[in-house]
Design a protein that fits this description.
The protein has 144 residues and is of the alpha+beta class. The protein has a domain of 65 residues: N-terminal domain of TfIIb. Strand 5 and strand 6 form a beta hairpin.
Length: 144
Amino acid sequence: EDETQSKSPTISFINSQKGKQLLIANEYIFKLNKTTTTTKYWKCVVNSCSAKIHTDVNGHLVKINDEHSHPSEKETIEVQCAKAKLSDATTAILPSEREMNSGINKARRAMTPTMPTTQLFDIPEPFTKTLHDDDFLIVDKMIT
């Protein structure tokens, strides 16, 4: 009992945003469910769907049960392919995570007022209002 369709679909692979490999066949997306020494078992990314594909370890189609309980995901596939291409291109030119964190911290320090060295100081304007622009500080007066 062979569930492979007479017209074998073209399959391709892309990476998810988390770096996991996804299989694309007939405008549907499959995630890797299990791997053995000879076979990779893929299942549809829609949890309620029972469609499955088996490939060998080299990614060649072995068996397919392509009965989906939902419409195809053509738009999702196009978006993920575009993100993957963009991701590869931008990764090559982006600074390292350490360099980015350093830049973010530098910007934060530039926005934070300096710590006062005496008790006589003016409270900076951003700290006198709430997030809804109400007066947070009514009186800025030192009691002696």
